[in-house]
Structure prediction request, 259 residues.
Amino acid sequence: MHTIRNAAILFVILLAAALAAPLSPAPARAAETVTLTTAPEGWEPFIIAAPRQAGRDGILVEVFREIAKKLGHDFRRVSNPDKQGLMMVRQGRLDAAPKAREWVSGPERYLWTDGVVTSSDTVLSRNAAPVPFQAPADLKGRTVGIIEGFKYPKLAAFIDNGAIKAVRAAGVADLLSLLMHGKIDCAVVNGPAAKWAIRNRGDINSDDLVFSRTPLDSAPLRFAFTGGDKWKPFIARFNAELAEMKKNGRLSAILSRYQ
Prediction:
């Protein structure tokens, strides 16, 4: 009897001690990583390829990283060729890629954020031989530099029927060289990309060049996410934070680092 009674008393004591002891905090939940794929060659100033230039990764990368961390996610950037990276996003093997919705075949297969910045293609010519531009037809009879692999829907018909002679180059730097050596009359370039290249070359005086005031084409640059439901809540929060960045000047501060 005493043994049973003593055991009962011991049980009550142990139970009371357990209830009085502070609860151990639950283990912290690891932050989910969101992975952004970018092309290895970059697209300055929107995406800067490694090695990083003075800590700058490019406008789109900086915006994505800042928002992801603000929302409590770890950020990881990986490098893949443009088409391969987008395919991996579609397959769910990677999370997101920077792109304009208008440039993608089957954009409905992805989830899209709001636009971060607008990409505008303008006509660049030499001040010594300016090419007036208001509409694509103004380029008829001209030799126009374009980038290999890029699509120019507003010029396609003129190029196909020979009204415009297209000279294809690997990138903006090559287009600038062709233009400055008089090999082409003008070049279709992304405005910020061309200005970045001119500033970083050192052998071209920007006063020797003139950008058309009217863009040939423009599209908002966004982030494409894997389709389905997984990223819908994140994208809603991403868009809200992006709107706040535009409102409070944080986006302008990032842009100013690349001007």
Summary: The chain has a mean pLDDT of 89. The longest strand covers residues 117-126. The CA atoms of residues 22 and 211 lie 69 Å apart.
